[in-house]
Amino acid sequence: MDHDKTLAAYDRQMRRDAHSDSATSRIERIDGVVRQIGSAHDWNGVLWADIDAATADAVIATQVRDYTAAGREFEWKLYSHDRPADLAQRLVAAGFVADPTETLMVAEADALPAGPELPEGVRLLPVTDAEGVRLMARAHTAAFGEGEAALGERIGKQVLAQLAEAPDDIVAVVAMAGDLPVCGARMELCPGTEFAGLWGGGTAPQWRGRGIYRALVAYRARIAAERGYRYLQVDASDDSRPILDRLGFATLCTTTPYVYTP
């Protein structure tokens, strides 16, 4: 994989030429900024900004004003190669709060190895309806604790809406140990691009280290390749990055969400 060409393709297809990811949101392109604005349940934020040291502060202030007027918390998704070089400090000075940094990793879908065999008693269940979404939310809580239950429910609402609005653009799956959901994951397909995004995959503590996460990656990679997507993209946490590295994913850059709450 050519790092520079792949990163340029990602920036062009997934950021500058981005499409909205729900029926209730829209992409706006104003003064070099590409941003998504939607309902309170949608992802709201800045995807791309063609700015420099002379224009950055004014552009940041405009985004704060517009999203605040809409009553929306929003995210400025900052990539490590974005400019100006001190953009992170400017965002903090404007009132943004940084979430943990993640690593943007990419692999060619048809080059990934087959997943390991699932542990005995574990099966993969495709998520296609409200009951499957409920199981995904339970898997999220099992993986991250009751403190993250609200986030799991919010993700579940998002998945349910995607299944209703554009079922061909999302693949969701939950790993079941008997009647217990122990891992949930999804893949968001972006028509007109080469990229499919992998999300989720957190596993209940007692089931970690047994190949479930890798099996879910392989499951989604096979579907992405069958549907003609060249690349799989992951915003990887520190926990998943070593696993993805061993599977053949390459690091493109790091990304940090800067969140502004009106």
Automatic annotation (TrEMBL):
<dbReference type="InterPro" id="IPR016181">
    <property type="entry name" value="Acyl_CoA_acyltransferase"/>
</dbReference>
<dbReference type="Pfam" id="PF00583">
    <property type="entry name" value="Acetyltransf_1"/>
</dbReference>
<dbReference type="InterPro" id="IPR000182">
    <property type="entry name" value="GNAT_dom"/>
</dbReference>
<protein>
    <recommendedName>
        <fullName>N-acetyltransferase domain-containing protein</fullName>
    </recommendedName>
</protein>
<dbReference type="GO" id="GO:0016747">
    <property type="term" value="F:acyltransferase activity, transferring groups other than amino-acyl groups"/>
</dbReference>
<feature type="domain" description="N-acetyltransferase">
    <location>
        <begin position="131"/>
        <end position="262"/>
    </location>
</feature>
